[in-house]
Fold:
Amino acid sequence: MKKISLRLIVLLTFALSSFSVSGEEKKTITIKGSDTMVILVQKWTETFPDKSVQFQVTGGGSGTGIAALINGTTDICSASRPLKPQEIQQLKEKYNSNGVEIKVAIDGISLYVNKKNPVAKLSLEEIRKIFTGKITNWKEVGGEDHKIVLYSRENNSGTYEYFKEHALEKQDFDPSAQHMVGTAALVNAISKDKWGIGYGGAAYASGVKDVAVSADANSKAELPTEANILTNKYPISRYLYFYLREAPKDQTKKFIDWVIGKDGQKVVKDVGYFPLKKK
Structure:
């Protein structure tokens, strides 16, 4: 699987000319939300062939993007989790719409450790016990005798919410977990910390080691590769979404159709995420 180079991306704004060659004002589409998706969204907007459109792309977390969608300050929300019932209700009250959900890619949640850490595989039960503080030493999972250092995303992150619900079974993170502003920052910290462990989008695993994950102690541990994710062998994967207040029209529809089409899904694979399953 192709990995991206490590970098912290907090704000991505494409400063394109406000006018096309013909002198007509360009259409601007704003996309805000998931930090996990921001590198992918950036690549989509750079690659989109219709240059009569300019884009403003920012991260901040899925929760931040969804709030912007509800407040009317973004055209598209990028999110690594589904809308919550209360968020759908807010959209309905304000816009008389439940919102429009569009699946745009698939992501595997990687478990990252330092490259010098000998631990190569973990079960979901071990992962849950590690992040909830029930397992605190690497020797308990086949590693060296040293305290485990936990790294997590912040609670406005869709990745945080997904991991808590599906990997931790809604249990709270251990209070010792260090909450990082973005996946790139989390990966950077683990690359420098032999005893660290964290989680995030599969495309970010540069400079660290992916841990193979098994659904239980009797299952084979698998790495988050495309083949394992698309055949459901890897147990922690999810869809990535675009959300809008209403059905897309004009150039916004053209962009989204391109994203979920052949060329846009090729970009997904090139960046290191996984294309939508073929029907």
